[in-house]
Q: What sequence folds into this?
């Protein structure tokens, strides 16, 4: 069983009391407990089971404007005492930083509403095994599938965040995640693809059969890929890739990147960043949402933010420290976005596919080719050549490149948005990028 | 050395008994105990931004029978907790019986000292160096707009207890010093990053103002990039510089030669043992035994002494990298490549220091032989799709080559290639093998482990460069 609120609260207050007693002017502490159980399958038989049971503690102590932190997994009182002593000793010799402080009291979350983020259902390992058997049975039904690997993870977590201004709250969350990776082979090639489902509640997880089928189908269609020539071509990003554009955008508008001046979106508030058809929302209070939260990692209340309205940048993601630097109030985004999404576009997936007589549909990118300082983007890519709205043949060993500043202004979104993950995007087309191949 | 048995009601005798009882009917497995202390200090935006100390303690208990691995970890080292884990393992493996393999090779060699780098140098003196770095770079040139500098130090103590009571221990120091600088000139911003590290004390790196060299290198890279032009797009010849660019070897070849992917036949290399996979003159080894290197280990995380494993010899595929589990299933021996990020994770076959050895040509000869291509000196990260064999890495410093001469610097571009065929495209191997500066972390299955790479300059006849200029 995951530790209850009382246990975590008692550890948190022990830490705060001790820090205060030693002379800390302020302190904040997070105590968490998490239990995960995973079962792995390979080629229709059990491959591994993994159980993890982990406590985690992190403390920040302040002496005026001086601050330092410690973290540990050892929650014995004796060890906590040693660590807080060490933390406070370090705080004393750490230079002052005028922006260091606990969050403004009036921004702290007052009351938490239930977002239904915890499902107490216990999915015993035997049941996971049954699920994975069904999944792999359907994933391997085609002869071209030569290997299947799948897993099911059940996680239950609880945490308490407390600070010396009297904030003390936390809540339980759960997640159920299943994934399937399949390998297909023909005389020309061997390819891998995957499908997964991750939900707060067990009953929302995709059917085993559907998940396995989808993984297999997505893998088989990649067989016998070709390399294309180097050209300017319009690119369609599958939903699982288009959402990565949002993650890049989120990193570029974090208050820390803005305050440091290391973002291509610095000083772009109230400027046109995307085409005027684009709206980007970050919504923390979606019921059962994978990214939902009542407050951020500092205890600050988080409300829905329109980050992009009609293409115009409206907000950064602000935490207390960087907010003070930028003279902005925290908007409860210490720790980043919550449930981030593009509002859906007004063209159907089919019409998007047919928009150009020839385009490149991308299902996978590899490499870390996003430069947040310059906005330059260049990654390895895998996908399909699309002609007249139809997949013609699979494509690989190519790269796609551009600059986010231009790419963002050339985005067209389909109307097929679904809320599956913590970051969600419809299918996306970007014109004017370069594909490099032969 | 940590004593894991003075922390609770768990005595060594208890632990031995629980381990032996649990693993008796299994093929392999062990109790892995770990205590780590780590420190990170970051200067950013003219200030000490964070100083964090963390201590971590826990165990991972593993039992293997046939192809099934059962694993359980906890950060509570106690009799109850270990018994719970034991029950958990037994319930997974209840219907599968094995025969425990007691054999594990021994060695007295050590590749680093038993030190705690964090305690060897006072916090004050570390803060002082970081402030010096900041002042030095900001005074150096008006275009310097941002400086980030950091120290990260760690000491990890491990103990492995096997069925029958055999215990193996190791104490591993690790440090890292990193500088990142952003320049702005004529409205353009570029960054340069450089770092050093290894399994030793900070003092070896910081004496004689060595930190200045790190600053100069980060500054130089950023300066070069300020002048960079859009990179070309398409297939062309690529000259790689020595040292860190060997992450190409790591991504393109290394991962595909890890035992697990080959046992499962999901690696593009699984049926190529004994075959020619590289040009003649190409020899690649994975070596855990180089003193004080980031990827070196006295013993791996299963207790096997590490070694120098020849992967490719003169173009021929000779060995895969193995942990005990995959080695047993493939009827071979562990190469001392069983690694894990920490006690929370299962062991996987991983790289240590992956190196292409020197040939006898010079970098000059390579550049002169290229009509149109690029010269890549430094890279950011890389990634590989094991199954299709396609891999990428991102240039952070690269130049055009025109008619045998190095031309303008080009913007960061991704290079993409095909693992099983790329080494056949190597047409020249330089005489200038160099180790990387000690900064690599390899990610696999969500676990990061420190690794090293090395190579001489090489000429690759055909690779796709992912720029924007057609």
A:
């Amino acid at each position: 069983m995951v530790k209850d609120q009382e246990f975590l609260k008692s550890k948190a207050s022990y830490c705060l009391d001790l820090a205060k007693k030693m002379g800390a002017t302020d302190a904040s502490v997070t105590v968490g407990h998490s239990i995960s159980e995973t079962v792995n399958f390979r080629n229709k038989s059990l491959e591994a089971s993994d159980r993890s049971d982990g406590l985690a503690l992190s403390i920040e102590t302040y002496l005026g404007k001086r601050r330092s932190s410690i973290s540990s997994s050892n929650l014995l009182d004796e060890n906590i005492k040693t660590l807080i002593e060490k933390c406070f000793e370090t705080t004393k010799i750490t230079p002052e930083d005028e922006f260091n402080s606990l969050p403004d009291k009036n921004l702290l979350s007052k009351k938490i509403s239930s977002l239904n983020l915890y499902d107490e259902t216990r999915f015993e390992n035997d049941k996971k095994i049954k699920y994975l058997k069904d999944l792999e049975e359907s994933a391997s039904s085609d002869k071209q599938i030569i290997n299947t690997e799948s897993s099911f993870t059940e996680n239950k977590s609880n945490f308490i965040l407390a600070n010396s201004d009297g904030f003390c709250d936390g809540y339980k969350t759960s997640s159920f995640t299943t994934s399937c990776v399949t390998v297909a082979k023909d005389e020309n090639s061997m390819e891998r693809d995957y499908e997964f489902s991750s939900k707060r509640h067990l009953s929302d997880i995709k059917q085993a059969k559907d998940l396995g089928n989808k993984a297999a189908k997505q893998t088989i269609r990649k067989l016998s890929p070709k390399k294309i020539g180097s050209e300017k071509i319009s690119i369609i990003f599958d939903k699982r890739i288009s959402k990565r554009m949002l993650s890049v955008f989120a990193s570029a508008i974090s208050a820390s990147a803005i305050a440091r001046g290391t973002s291509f979106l610095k000083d772009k508030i109230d400027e046109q960043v995307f085409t005027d058809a684009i709206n980007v929302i970050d919504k923390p209070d979606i019921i059962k949402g994978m990214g939902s939260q009542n407050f951020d990692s500092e205890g600050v209340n988080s409300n829905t933010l329109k980050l992009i309205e009609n293409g115009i940048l409206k907000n950064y993601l602000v935490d207390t420290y960087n907010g003070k630097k930028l003279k902005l109030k925290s908007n409860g985004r210490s720790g980043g976005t919550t449930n981030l999404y593009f509002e859906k576009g007004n063209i159907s997936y089919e019409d998007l596919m047919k928009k150009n007589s020839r385009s490149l549909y991308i299902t996978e990118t590899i490499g870390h080719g996003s430069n947040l300082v310059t906005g330059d983007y260049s990654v390895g890519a895998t996908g399909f050549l699309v002609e007249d709205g139809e997949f013609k043949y699979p494509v690989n060993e190519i790269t796609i490149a551009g600059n986010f500043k231009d790419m963002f202004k050339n985005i067209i979104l389909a109307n097929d948005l679904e809320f599956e993950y913590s970051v969600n995007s419809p299918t996306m087309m970007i014109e004017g990028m370069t594909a490099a191949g032969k | 050395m940590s004593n894991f048995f003075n922390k609770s009601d768990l005595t060594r005798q208890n632990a031995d008994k629980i381990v032996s009882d649990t693993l008796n009917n299994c093929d392999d497995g062990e109790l892995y105990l770990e205590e780590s202390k780590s420190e990170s200090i970051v200067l950013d935006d003219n200030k000490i931004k964070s100083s964090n100390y963390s201590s971590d303690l826990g165990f991972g208990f593993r039992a293997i029978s046939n192809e099934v691995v059962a694993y359980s970890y906890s950060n509570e080292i106690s009799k109850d907790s270990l018994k719970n884990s034991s029950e958990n393992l037994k319930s997974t493996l209840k219907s599968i019986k094995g025969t425990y393999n007691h054999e594990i090779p021994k060695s007295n060699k050590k590749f680093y000292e038993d030190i705690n780098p964090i305690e060897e140098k006072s916090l004050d003196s570390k803060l002082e160096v970081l402030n010096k770095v900041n002042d030095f770079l900001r005074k150096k040139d008006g275009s310097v707009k941002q400086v980030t500098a950091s120290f990260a130090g760690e000491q990890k103590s491990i103990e492995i207890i096997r069925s029958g009571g055999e215990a193996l221990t190791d104490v591993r120091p690790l440090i890292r010093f990193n500088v990142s600088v952003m320049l702005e000139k004529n409205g353009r911003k570029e960054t340069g990053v450089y770092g050093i590290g290894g399994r030793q004390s900070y003092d070896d790196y910081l004496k004689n103002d060595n930190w200045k060299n790190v600053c100069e290198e980060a500054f130089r890279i950023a300066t070069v990039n300020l002048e960079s032009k859009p990179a070309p797009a398409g297939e062309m010849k690529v000259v790689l510089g020595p040292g860190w660019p060997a992450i190409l070897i790591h991504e393109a070849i290394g991962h595909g030669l890890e035992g697990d992917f080959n046992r499962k036949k999901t690696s593009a290399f699984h049926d190529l043992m004994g075959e020619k996979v590289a040009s003649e003159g190409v020899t690649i080894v994975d070596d855990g035994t180089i003193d004080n290197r980031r990827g070196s280990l006295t013993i791996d995380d299963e207790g096997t002494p590490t070694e120098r494993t020849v992967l490719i010899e003169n173009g021929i595929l000779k060995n895969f990298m193995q942990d005990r589990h995959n080695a047993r299933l493939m009827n071979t021996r562990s190469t001392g490549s069983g690694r894990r990020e920490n006690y929370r994770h299962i062991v996987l076959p991983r790289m240590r220091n992956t190196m292409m050895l020197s040939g006898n040509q010079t970098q000059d000869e390579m550049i002169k032989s290229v009509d149109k291509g690029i010269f890549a000196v430094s890279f950011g990260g890389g990634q590989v799709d094991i199954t299709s064999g396609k891999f990428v890495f991102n240039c952070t410093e690269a130049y055009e080559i025109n008619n045998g001469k190095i031309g303008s610097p080009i913007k960061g571009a991704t290079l993409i290639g095909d693992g099983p065929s790329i080494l056949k495209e190597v047409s020249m191997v330089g005489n200038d093998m160099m180790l990387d500066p000690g900064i690599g972390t390899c990610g696999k299955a969500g676990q990061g482990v420190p690794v090293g790479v090395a190579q001489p300059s090489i000429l690759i006849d055909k690779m796709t460069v992912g720029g924007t200029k057609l």
